[in-house]
Amino acid sequence: MAKRKVDTENRGFQTRWESEYMFTKVAGKPVCLLCGESVAVLKEYNLRRHYETKHADKNKNMDMEQRLQKAEELKRGLKSRQALFKKAKSQGQAAVKASFILAEEIAKSARPFTEGDFIKNCMIKVCDEVCPEKRQLFLNVSLSRNTIAERVDQLSINLKEQLVKKGKDFIAYSLAVGESTDISDIAQLSIFIRGVDSNLSVTEEFLALRPMHGTTTGHDLYEEVSRCVNEMELPWEKLVGLTTDGAPAMCGHRSGLVAKIREKMQEENATGELTAYHCIIHQEALCGKALKMEHVMSIITRTVNFIRAKGLNHRQFKAFLTELETEHGDLPYHTEVRWLSQGKVLQRCFELREEICLFLDSKGKDTTQLRDEMFLCEMAFLCDITSHLNAINLQLQGRDRVISDMYSTVKAFKTKLTLWETQMRKENLSHFPSCQTMKEKLSTSAFPSTQLADKIGMLAADFRRRFADFEAQKSRLELLGNPFAVDVESSPPNLQMELIDLQCNDALRAKYAAVGAAEFARFLPGTMPQLRIQAAQTLSMFGSTYLCEQLFSLMNLNKTSHRSRLTAEHLHSILRISSAQSLTPNIDELVEKMGHHQVSPSTSNK
């Protein structure tokens, strides 16, 4: 015979029991109004036995009306206590949530953990003026250094858990890897992941920052990357691409990171081929070296350093420009690491070339080179071509960039270079305004158009050489960029039938025109599985290590000479929070996990 289950007997609480036995119903259970004890099973016998055993003597002289009044008073008291408890619990949870919110803001703004005490002190002072009766609520918010550090770690763990959960749905993913050194001379390896799920939604997030205390060989890098992939529980066969900063330890054919990961994929019997890229932005910056115009830049750098290096010279130069009422009031510095600064320095020096010569003359410096017409023509050309290179560099930067769009940008620039070379040979300077200015001011010598056209030809050749690996993937990239223009016959056999169906579908063609290439992939129907997989793989690929470089900037903002003892774990947590894009910490979930813990009031007014 089956055992009886009390819960299935639908026993109801009867109102008369309140006055007869001094019981009420709280959260589905009978609770004694006199002593607060609860009875496990809702049966009249159990309630009566409890009352007669423990409370019968206290209320034996009461009539029914008095018992009713007594029961109502006790019920009101119970409700009051419950409300007070709920309020206290609510206030405690609000205080904990506030500490999480402020910890997140402190991490995002690269502030030290001790800023929590300063913020609390400010809050208390504001509270004293605006709402002094709420002072205790603000005091209950714990913002000590240790609390902020703990909250930051909890927020980071929550973000990682979300990423791991998302990673289980990835049908394709790629990695971007970069390496740099922090203020303590510790090599830091940054890893980002870009994954695509079955709905073709892209997730681009920070994966890890790994400190490298010893060597940074290809094997060392591989060990750290492999550990990250395994921690995420990502299958190696779904890894599509690897984009690096181009260092030998990354790209070495035998023992580099790329080679090691390819070996690992072969061991795991992965069917796909790993596509490895050297960062497009790095490549574009390196192409500028092909111009071989360091002699021009060295003269400019020496001139700028003479003016800026000494405080007196700098002050006098600014006063000199103010006296002449020039458009610009100063010269910027040029730093080799900051690629875009070269264009700004060149542009400013070209615009202030006459004023600079006058100032150097007043200081007794030789300005023969700076006044030489050939040098000025080369400086004007370098100014214009650097401006064009900076423009494409800015186009390639940013988050959530689709590699097919980046390829199209580079392809367009190569076409522009061909046009500029042809026009330069004909002395058509439409796209070179500084050169146009110099040509008009030349006194005797002719503008060196042939020599400068050769420079453009050298730049174009270097672009073709450096971006040859992207040309090898041309058909794959164009398939995502414009599937309606792809030649079906030259496409892989497994895609041909689906491509014909796609190109003959007017509704999908209209959708492509409306939403663009990057978004269109989501609208590919389930009847085209091969095209969807191909789109997912291409969408997952990084075109550059921009995110890694951006992370290193954040790292340098956080780990400074004043915070050089910041631990690797705390630095990792801070960077995960500050670099998060599509993920946000679930603070409500974190507060709930802390249960009924209530932050104790601070003993100080800080």
Automatic annotation (TrEMBL):
<feature type="coiled-coil region">
    <location>
        <begin position="54"/>
        <end position="81"/>
    </location>
</feature>
<keyword id="KW-0175">Coiled coil</keyword>
<dbReference type="InterPro" id="IPR012337">
    <property type="entry name" value="RNaseH-like_sf"/>
</dbReference>
<dbReference type="InterPro" id="IPR040647">
    <property type="entry name" value="SPIN-DOC_Znf-C2H2"/>
</dbReference>
<feature type="domain" description="SPIN-DOC-like zinc-finger">
    <location>
        <begin position="14"/>
        <end position="60"/>
    </location>
</feature>
<dbReference type="Pfam" id="PF18658">
    <property type="entry name" value="zf-C2H2_12"/>
</dbReference>
<protein>
    <recommendedName>
        <fullName>SPIN-DOC-like zinc-finger domain-containing protein</fullName>
    </recommendedName>
</protein>
